[in-house]
Amino acid sequence: MAEEASMQLQQTQLLEKTLWEAVLNRDPSFVGQLFYGVRSTGIYCRPICPSRRPNRNQVCFFQSAQEAEIAGFRPCKRCQPQSETVPSTAKVLAVCRYIEAQGDRIPTLSELCSQVGMSSSYLQRRFKQIIGVSPFQYADALRSQRLKQRLQSGEEIAHAVYDTGYGSSSQLYEKAPKQLGMTPKTYQQAGKTISIVYAIAPCPLGYLLVATTEKGICAVKLGDEADKLEHILNQEFHQAYIIRDDHTHKEWIQAILNFIAGGKVHLDLPLDVRGTAFQKQVWQALQKIPYGETRTYTDIACDIAKPQAVRAVGNACGANPIALIVPCHRVLRSDGSLGGYHWGIERKQKLLTQESTPKGINNSKFKMTLSTRRCANVDSL
Predict the structure, then answer these.
(1) What are phi and psi of 326, to 5 degrees?
(2) In terms of DSSP H, where are the helices of 104-156?
(3) Of the four, 99, 125, 160, 370, which is 20 to 30 A from 186 by CA?
């Protein structure tokens, strides 16, 4: 009996040591599972609370906010631990729906906080962890998307600008290079003043389409039929000046073909791609994955310091405009399954098999290499 009691005591001490380290490190993976009370103040907090860490001998641990309150502790006003009774993820999604409903304006942060009963600092932090961007950036991206749709439909620029919530045309023109990639007038004309040259070549994955502007490669697509790839390109830039020329930038196309065939392990080509700040962050992380290795969506979310934005990472992978150069095929689900791929699961499998046996390396068995960093309690796609 004495030995059993001693073992239980050791296990309890080990558990409390782990919980205390989570508090000291403000570990987000314990959010919703761990609350700590401070006897000297009578307040309980989340492990990620920004307040100064208390002395260890003043701290006790709880599994829920209700348990802490039953013990006589009151919630911290900074981290608002009582809001965990309604999962913060659901509240963040409610904020997204509210922002989406405001078609002609961007709501203020205090307005959003009042909708879900969260402090501004906590809402900002949780929103960015889950969605990948701040509430304002999310609203701004929606506004930009609505503007694009109106411009493409032929609506007058002035009406589109004010109806989508831009305070003035000058405000839009300041943002135009980042959000539209061009002036509103040019965008309205679907790239009418842009010249795009593309080439199509057969490859082991079917057909490869590579489209370029004067700045660099703007699209890389894979498919079973050359006609369908041409149709997709023309839809995206339906008023641009598009011509096919299989000889212009032939060396770029050959480099990609060599990559597909396994004769080249790295692509360093000039690019002209546009995306949101978050998408570009994800794409840059993908380009850092070494040839022959893979990562999970969770790994990428951790790499860009947004561990809760796993689904947003998946969406950014799906929006990748330059297949192969940005190797989104190297991203798998947390369980090791292939997940999705814009150009087809079979192509993804072929690419991974090809890369698992690079030239000069005897490695017939595919090995999934995970990054050394881990994120706990993040759902896989």
Answers:
(1) -100, 100
(2) 109-116, 120-131, 135-152
(3) 99
Backbone torsion region of residue 32, taken as left when φ is above 0, otherwise alpha when ψ lies between -120 and 50, otherwise beta: left
CA distances from 291 to 156, 158, 315, 327, 365 (A): 48, 48, 22, 9, 15
Q: Is the pLDDT of residue 361 over 50?
A: no
Average pLDDT, stretch 299-325?
88
Q: Taking residues 13-34, report their average pLDDT.
A: 82
Give the strand pairing for 206-212 and 59-62: unpaired
The answer for 292, left when phi > 0, alpha when psi is -120 to 50, beta otherwise, is: left
Q: Which residues contact residue 350 at a Cβ distance below 8 angstroms, ignoring those fewer than 6 apart?
A: 204, 205
* Positions marked active-site: 45, 328
Sign of torsion over alpha carbons 224, 227, 228, 233: positive
The single-letter code of the amino acid at 223 is: G
In tens, the pLDDT along 97-119 reads: 888 887 667 888 989 988 888 88
Cα dihedral 347, 351, 353, 357, rounded to 10, equals 160
- The CA distance from 340 to 101, in Å, is 30
Distance CA 354, CA 269 (A): 21
pLDDT number for residue 37: 95
**Tokens 């699961």, residue located:** 345
What lies within 8 Å, CB to CB, of 4 at 6+ separation is none
Which residue from 133, 132, 139, 135 is spatially nearest to 123, judged by alpha carbons?
135
pTM of this prediction?
0.50
pLDDT for res 381: 39
